[in-house]
Amino acid sequence: xxxxxxxxxxxxxxxxxxxxxxxxxxxxxxxxxxxxxxxxxxxxxxxxxxxxxxxxxxxxxxxxxxxxxxxxxxxxxxxxxxxxxxxxxxxxxxxxxxxxxxxxxxxxxxxxxxxxxxxxxxxxxxxxxxxxxxxxxxxxxxxxxxxxxxxxxxxxxxxxxxxxxxxxxxxxxxxxxxxxxxxxxxxxxxx
Length: 191
Known about the structure:
Blueprint: H1 2-30, H2 37-44, H3 48-54, H4 58-62, H5 66-78, H6 87-101, H7 107-114, H8 117-140, H9 148-166, H10 171-188
Helix pairs in contact: 1-2, 5-6, 5-8, 6-9, 6-10, 8-9, 9-10
């Protein structure tokens, strides 16, 4: 039973990845606006209903690692050693995410996002959701002892650090510069 369940999950993950890869290829070849959901489903050789069982919208196809991003940030908070400071693991995650997003092969994707109002709007709503999730995890951690407002503010700063650094001439240096400000803000919120 466990073997079958594991196999089923691997097949689902492979289908999801195939759909995402196909969508990204089509979007970069033809342009985001020129490709429809039916085009992606046909090219990936899946039914439209299968595509929608993996992705809630066309925009979600571009941000297929959205859930992973959110999980990595929450894990940076919940996976800390007892009494380990909050910000170093979050800084490491933001550095890793910025490195991924600014890698040579990803510039085309970010140009596509910048050129599409629908994708920019989706990304903004995604960032707000990530910030709220991160804030909730921070507020639930008894070692952090901060108000909900402080947690929400710092979480927004962390999520915005990712977006701001990604667009900077030196993204890694920008992460460090932004996190110096975040650390100062975190110290101010100390009880």
